[in-house]
Amino acid sequence: MNITKPVVDTLTWAASSDKQIDLPNEGLITEIELELYLTASGALASAGSVASLWRAIQSLKIEGGGGKVYFGMSGVQMGIMLHYLNLLDHPGTTWREIVATSQYLNFRLHFGSRPRDIFGRRNPFDLTCAIPAFKETNLKLTWGTTANSALDASVTISSATMRATVHEVLPTPEAIAAWSKKIPVSSSEAYDPGATKSDYSGQRDVPVGNHIRRIVIMCLDATAYSSAGPLLKADQMTEVGVLLNKENRWIFKSREQAIRLQNPKFDGMQVAATPNVDSPFDVQGLYNIDLRRYDNPDYGLDARRMTPGDVKLGMTIGAYGAAETEHIWYDQVQDFQL
Length: 338
What we know:
The longest helix is centred in the first third of the chain and has 11 residues, at 79-89. It is built from 3 helices and 20 strands. Helix content is 7%, strand content 40%.
């Protein structure tokens, strides 16, 4: 049996803090929708940053007992990256409604690999990967907030409330048989290259021991909050690749432009005077490397028997300024033993 239900508790904004709620623990959680109601100190101008509205989320984490992290997206203004993932996975969805100083935003955490079913319909009860909440006693979602000056150079956050709606499958024998016995275990890191890097020499060890479904990179400059920063930049990382180190084989190499020009339009904000008019922008500084194209079509690169250092993320850094960073999210899938 499938269930959709709101979580009773809400998350109330406070600047630069961690807000936490308990998640239900009766089934397999396949998707969580987050609704963010945000009030700004003034109307956002059309000249505001493209990513302004999504900056209220600094980080998100779903953690169970014993420190088990099912979803980890930490860094700087990771709501921007999460919105980018939503644009990739759920095209055609309206993610925001804005009237003057009131903003309503929607985020979706889909843990499976098939957000659409074979008929093209939304698939919130996707059992290709799920959080085994029925095996947890202390499952929590944590929202790390930004400073209240994160929206743009002149507008601050006055108040905000986040609500969660959980999609879950009750663990009947039939559901357990249908479930893949795969769980999400994503993690993230910030990489400051310190200088320009040539020929993919800016390298990071990709986490191994699981399937690596995809790697997402967000390039941010060092512009201050008070000046509507940090800003997404397209001139930092000029090339990116994934190297199987023991074999000395690059399974993926690409120029920055080749990825960027395939990105969806970023529906960042609307002009305050005409709140129902879209103002899409080309996405820059955000890059998705989907490893499901290169190995398992649901779970990506099989790194279950690999050791640290076996998989490298290589970047060419064409331009660098002090404190400019690449924020990297590793979307992984782990085998689960009942």
